[in-house]
Amino acid sequence: MAPIASDLTEEQRKKLCNLLGNVELSLLYKASVHGYKASDFHQRCDRQGPTIIVAYNSSGYIFGGYTSVDYAQSGQHITDNEAFLFSIRYGTPLCIKVNSGQYARYDDAGGPNFGGQLYFCYENQPVVENQWGDSFSFTDAKLFGSNTNLTECEVYKVKQILQVSVKEKPWRNILWTEKQKEKLIDMIRNYKPLMSSVSRVRILMIGPVGAGKSSFFNSINSIFMGHVTSKAMSGSAGTSVTTQFRTYPVKDGCERKPLPFVLCDTMGLEEQSGAGLDIEDISNILQGHIPDRYKFNPTAPFKPDEQKASRPASLQEKIHCVVYVIDTNKISLMSDKLQEKLNSIRSQINSLAIPQIALMTKVDEACPHVQKDLQNTYASSYIKSKVQEMSSWLGVPVSCVLPVKNYSQELELELNCDILLLTALQQMLRFADDYFDDICPVEGNAK
């Protein structure tokens, strides 16, 4: 069967690519061939990642919209700060970004729409419909010449063309040597918390189901044990594999000497209310009230007994650094509800002045050049863009976003993987000292 021809000329394709960056476009759906029904559109375009709709009318206008978030018929309002409408009929293309604070799409089973405002193939017909709204600011005349009759409607998958050169100057400097690995290990072994009353820094890991919290502990434990381990339960189930609050001390090699930090693992976050880790539980964890191996109940948050509630936890029992663990591939796909949960969590953590770091896991799966060689992590423009996206999405500085690769299918340790993981752990310990210095500078400086 011959491939379906695109109606875009080469010049028009270049104009679209100028709006989108360094991308390639592959045709998913052509209404005149596949049908104008919403079901035809969803059959070919759902779960395809970023897409761009290109519509044509009899007045010669070529217009449409871009979204970086999958179509999934979720019934949710989709926030997508990268979404825009466009028209490329004459000269410089017209580009209309989604208005701040407005949703970009309503992700239902109907035809493609932008902001629940501009509908393509409206009611399964070759027409475009503007129902007005606040998501995008445009006029029918400018966008499509007020001609609502479509002669064609196409949808293209938008794939980033990743360009990484080892000759390119890295955007972060890091040494990929055995000597650097040993230097990081020695620093961590010999680290002592800035506060004399604290023997081990407590680091809390928070993140959605399947992001890699438990795998991060297993990976750090593997480095110090000298071989790949799997002490914490991890996996890719649809719901959280971790059901308890676990505090994992890490021991150093054969001597089993405890290292000066504890990684605290939690149940994964889920977007539904009454599922996954409850926000009230996080508050109790931060303040040191929840004991090790406490089993979470998503429908009933932890309640400390009266005796414990009457006395504040010691600094030793509290959390000293919080780490958000997020799958690099899913940063753009986070739902509004999950983002609301994370915003609530961040507000609690900010109120306690606890430092926060974001770990971007599975960077090798996100970028083929990084998959080929982890040393390309800080030379990859795509990973850099994801770091910036994570920074904006979570509201943390770019310097607090660290890409890592956990051990998942490997049987032996790998130098580059170890260096990324140890660099991240080093930053967590530094941030914990910033916390100690901030809450009690007198004791901290007196050490």
Q: What does this entry show, briefly?
A:
The chain has 447 residues and is α+β, with helices and mostly antiparallel strands.
Model description:
This protein is elongated. The chain has helices at residues 10-20, 31-34, 38-45, 140-144, 178-190, 213-225, 279-286, 306-309, 336-351, 363-366, 368-372, 381-394, 415-439, 441-446, and strands at residues 23-30, 51-57, 62-67, 76-78, 84-87, 94-97, 105-107, 113-114, 118-120, 128-130, 150-160, 201-206, 244-252, 257-265, 294-295, 321-327, 356-361, 401-403. The chain is 30% helix and 21% strand. The strands form 4 sheets. Strands 15-13-14-12-16-17-18 form a 7-stranded mixed β-sheet, with helices on both faces. Mean pLDDT is 86; it is low at 235-241 and 442-447. The N and C termini lie far apart (75 Å). It has 14 helices and 18 strands. It is α+β, with helices and mostly antiparallel strands.
